[in-house]
């Protein structure tokens, strides 16, 4: 039995994945060995939070998926309405209450050639879903987490949600080795770009909420957009501008956002406490507003 099979034979029974038009037991779902996603990371993805069995910000994630695909010229694997049906069915078959839905679209399987094959119009669509322990997330949120900074060594199109995540994987692992939860990337000028899988925010000493403006340097986070909306509704002063690592060290509050974390307080950066090393007031206000949005009943 291969390591992978052994690993998945331990995964909870009944997990179902969607791959190339079929719902299959998670351990049996496969793609072709010449899939361009595997060979070239010629592929994009999305991660949506599931709350009370419902997909959060579904439209935002689908809009971004369509944009990522358009940017790298992969056709949508199916009409949006059909994709939505597959998303819901994957959540339903896995009986997820609180968790994550993962979607990946690769350019498909072809004889290996760097150039995109003329006939590349059969993308591979993969969906998986898994349960998350909400209590663990809430505990982490109540305490806050540590981050460490490192140089941003990624490509120049971080606005595309590509699965070419090697720099992110290495950065997150390095952070974990240093006892931190997340890595914050810093550009050549000393400005924080974003986290390895999250968007970065600080609150200045004057109470101004800062996050880097959208550009090819960062992923246009769906949670980021929701939190910006919440901040404006709450009357918080917000500026979308880049901030330096020095400004982050001197910040009154810091946090990051992602579908996997919602609003997560940062209490230490590079071993330096952020203010009194406790989640800040504005952070908590935004976290509770985001939670209220996530838990709001659907009309
Ligand atoms: N990551 N920046 C990067 C580099 C990311 O990978 C992510 C998301 C975000 C936050 O985007 P959103 O709010 O839309 O989740 C920002 C996902 C969760 C992941 O890779 O698992």
The helix/strand class is alpha+beta
Largest sheet: 9 strands, mixed
- What helical percentage do the residues reach? 25-40%
Cofactors and ligands: N-(5'-phosphopyridoxyl)-D-alanine
Brief characterization of the structure:
With 299 residues, the protein is an alpha+beta fold. It is built from nine helices and 15 strands.
Key words describing this protein structure:
about 300 residues; alpha+beta; nine-stranded mixed β-sheet; six-stranded antiparallel β-sheet; 9 helices; globular; binds N-(5'-phosphopyridoxyl)-D-alanine
Which helices and strands appear, and what pairs or packs with what?
Elements: H1 3-9, E1 16-19, E2 22-25, H2 36-40, E3 43-51, E4 54-55, H3 58-71, H4 80-94, E5 99-106, E6 124-131, H5 134-143, E7 145-151, H6 166-177, E8 182-186, E9 192-195, E10 199-203, E11 209-211, H7 222-233, E12 238-240, H8 245-249, E13 253-258, E14 262-269, E15 272-273, H9 281-295
Parallel strand pairs: 7-8, 7-14, 11-12
Antiparallel strand pairs: 1-2, 1-6, 3-4, 3-5, 5-6, 8-9, 10-11, 10-13, 13-14, 14-15
Helix pairs in contact: 7-9
Bound molecules: N-(5'-phosphopyridoxyl)-D-alanine.
N-(5'-phosphopyridoxyl)-D-alanine binds next to α7 and β13.
Explain this structure:
This protein has helices at 3-9, 36-40, 58-71, 80-94, 134-143, 166-177, 222-233, 245-249, 281-295; strands at 16-19, 22-25, 43-51, 54-55, 99-106, 124-131, 145-151, 182-186, 192-195, 199-203, 209-211, 238-240, 253-258, 262-269, 272-273. By secondary structure, it is α+β, with helices and mostly antiparallel strands. The chain is globular. The relative contact order is 0.13. Mean pLDDT is 95; it is low at 1-10. The structure holds N-(5'-phosphopyridoxyl)-D-alanine.
